[in-house]
Specification:
The structure is a homodimer of 433-residue chains. Chain A is α+β, with helices and mostly antiparallel strands and 433 residues long. Chain A is built from 11 helices and 14 strands. In chain A, strands 1, 2, 3, 4, 5, 6, 7 and 8 form an 8-stranded mixed β-sheet that branches. A 6-stranded mixed β-sheet of chain A has the order 12-11-10-13-9-14. In chain A, α5 crosses α6 and α7 crosses α9. The first copy, chain A, starts with 30 loop residues before the first strand and ends with a helix. At the A-B interface, α8, α9, β12 and α11 of A face α8, α9, β12 and α11 of B.
Chain lengths: 433, 433
């Protein structure tokens, strides 16, 4: 079931460097539709609707940036107990668009909720009126450009007409492709587990390229489950697992105005009633959510422009979790470290430099550094068995593990990043020109 | 007198993109000697001695890294009131070299102080015995490699033999070249001013390439003055001016284990006695120190590998100085901003992103952004006069100014950086291979 990141980067094993993704199938209570609203010059799907005909419980985490897009503002104001739809558009981030950007979303929410209410009137035995407050928006694309509200509005009838109540792997793929900006691969992941004796599904899709893509590098992640779970439980599970997944990846330390990850539960499964996130019956569900989030987060990292290597940084035996994170990210964000990896150079001095500048407490006499299985620094001294030829050979792998042992406590953190190649600069410097 | 950074980057004015540097002449009380100790495969000066025959008052600032080199440890332990010599070696940083690295310095300090004492016996009317505690060390180069103490020791007689008591521009140039690692240009700057009615000189040399060069990017800066000033006054002046000069430059946020800036006063000028750093007679001296430090810091920034543009980030009307710095450096260190500059793309959305992620408080309705003289964002709205063609044309300059107006207070900070080019990655990925 586990979707291995190594599939992205497996020159050694002669596998193709094309993303493996998982096929998602039907999930009760969700309908998907994707169309082109003509937001790009060249026609492609750019508008994707996730429709929960009987509503969905939900929980979100949003960007920590102090400058946030209009849709994030909108989402933060939603106070409906259930959501009916999530509308995702690409090409335009609706950020720094001022009050007009927000008004556009209001207009869209009115239009979409009205159209969905009409659909319910036709389709359902017990139609309900859908409120604009039940619509969530995700936007990604260029910031500061006028939000194309008219084009999107014009596409809503088409979008609703294409809703099908049975999903298959093709429609999930269409959705995963439709939310992409400059991603090179669609990102889909799934897991199944039991709550009590009831089997439930956790499906996820994401977009983003190592948080670094030209269009502000927005990362979007959406998880869907048929499990019957209250929003309060979803919130705790998402909050806990985001720290070691989407908050553990970094390509260049840049953060978007639009980042969001949301989990939706359609409540169609007949699992036992769960009221508390710490309910032991949730153990496997929790693990599955973590697995899906981690797979998606790794896929986002691995899709960084020009990335040729996936790097896992294990930082252990730290005094505090905060310091473990500081050190991990100091390494993950260091240009000198990332370029050394691109050059397949085991320049561990740069790793030591990144540890030193992290502001975390370091006792050099207790510090050990491993590159893959090879001990380089042992408690402050260069390993007597250090063989640069062997380590250089290891550096040729497409997936590289670093282990940093601070020897000061028992806290740990793992961060994921990629190398930094000329291709990265090429893509980012040439964007828009 | 002011050494303009524009000389580095003046394609527009058809000037050569070669560093202008200033010629330094004789400065009473200092002698310089530079030799090759054979630290590099190819012969070049790699060992530079600054000798103060009558001692020098001094003050230093050292790297903030938690992992520091053995010579920084040594320098931090010096408690002599005056220094007699500064020995600078390149090629080896003496960092992560364990207790042997420190012992090597002890050995060198004994040897050098003995040799200098012998020289005094021969040259001086009132010879004095020089203590190992009067020797300061600066090291720069690869870390984690055995410190080449024997080679250096063997060169000390040669180094001392070459000491001349009268300095000229050639020996200063030899010194500036001798302390370089992968710098592409020597860095020299000077200023003269009066303390009371006495003219004094402030000379400075530096090495470093935008804090980003392969060999851990060590930045070294040395200032020399003939002014008669106590170490306590030098300390306050250095501490104050370092914040807006060497601490205001950033190429990639990486910090070395070996960074240091030291100011030495030979006390040969007959200026009035100064006891307090706030003495009004020091106003012009203070300005001159700032000028020399800023010129050197800008030269270090401009010499970043592959840099094609010099970028000045003025952040004003912030709530606090701390927030002004956070925003300036968030922009200066953002890969997305730096690659946009390399691509001559006025992608102001990336600048807004970098402001947003800085963790400083931002009120978007008060935020204004200027690129050069062009208003882009005015209090949260795209300027009505914004003309992307004009701004794109401005982006073709080799020196670019950004102004960020937070509209929240009266604190300001200016940071200096460069763009990020493919050449940078090429140099850093290919290092050592």
């Amino acid at each position: 079931m586990v979707f291995s990141i190594n599939n992205f980067f497996d020159r050694k094993n002669k596998k193709s460097i094309i993303a493996d993704f998982q096929d998602l199938e039907h999930l009760d209570g969700i309908s998907i539709s994707a169309v082109s609203a003509g937001l790009y010059e060249k026609k492609r799907d750019d508008l994707v609707l996730f429709y929960f005909r009987d509503g969905a419980n939900y929980a979100s985490v949003f960007t920590q940036s102090k400058i946030i897009s209009e849709n994030i503002k909108w989402n933060q104001k939603i106070d409906s107990k259930k959501l009916t739809a999530l509308l995702v558009n690409t090409r335009n981030a609706n950020a720094l668009t001022g009050s007009n950007g927000f008004k556009s979303l209001k207009e869209l929410s009115l239009d979409l909720s009205k159209n969905l209410s009409d659909k319910q009137m036709m389709d359902e035995d017990c139609p309900k009126k859908i409120s604009p407050n039940e619509i969530m928006f995700a936007c990604t694309g260029t910031i500061g450009e006028k939000f194309p509200v008219d084009k999107i509005k014009k596409s809503i009838p088409d979008l609703i007409q294409k809703i099908k109540y049975t999903q298959n792997k093709l429609i999930w793929m269409k959705a995963a492709l439709g939310i992409m900006t400059t991603d090179t691969k669609p990102k889909l992941s799934m897991s199944e587990c039991k709550i009590g004796s009831t089997k439930v599904k956790i499906y996820g899709i994401a977009k983003g390229s190592g948080m670094i893509f030209p269009n502000m590098a927005t990362t979007l992640g959406f998880l869907f489950t048929d499990a019957k779970l209250p929003s309060s439980v979803l919130k705790q599970i998402l909050k806990k697992n985001i720290e070691t997944t989407f908050n553990a990846i970094s390509c260049d330390g840049d953060t978007s105005t639009n980042d969001m990850v949301t989990i939706f539960s359609t409540n169609k499964a007949n699992n036992p009633i769960i009221k508390k996130p710490k309910d032991t019956k949730l153990k496997k569900f929790n693990d599955s959510v973590h697995e899906v989030l981690l797979n998606l987060a790794k896929s986002v990292t691995a899709d960084g422009e020009g990335a040729s290597k996936f790097i896992t940084i294990n930082c252990k035996n730290c005094r505090t979790l905060k310091e473990a994170k500081k050190i991990s990210f100091s390494i993950a964000n260091s240009l000198l470290v990332k370029t050394a990896f691109a050059g397949e150079d085991p320049n561990w001095g740069r790793i030591a430099m990144a540890i030193g500048k992290s502001s975390a407490k370091v006792n050099i006499n207790k510090l050990s550094i491993l590159i893959g299985p090879f001990k380089v620094l042992i408690k402050g001294n260069l390993s007597e068995n250090y063989d640069e030829i062997k380590v250089s050979d290891y550096m040729k792998n497409d997936s590289i593990n670093l282990t940093i042992d601070l020897g000061l406590g028992d806290k740990k953190f793992t961060a994921y990043t990629t190398d930094l190649t000329k291709k990265y600069v090429e893509i980012n410097a040439d964007y828009r020109t």
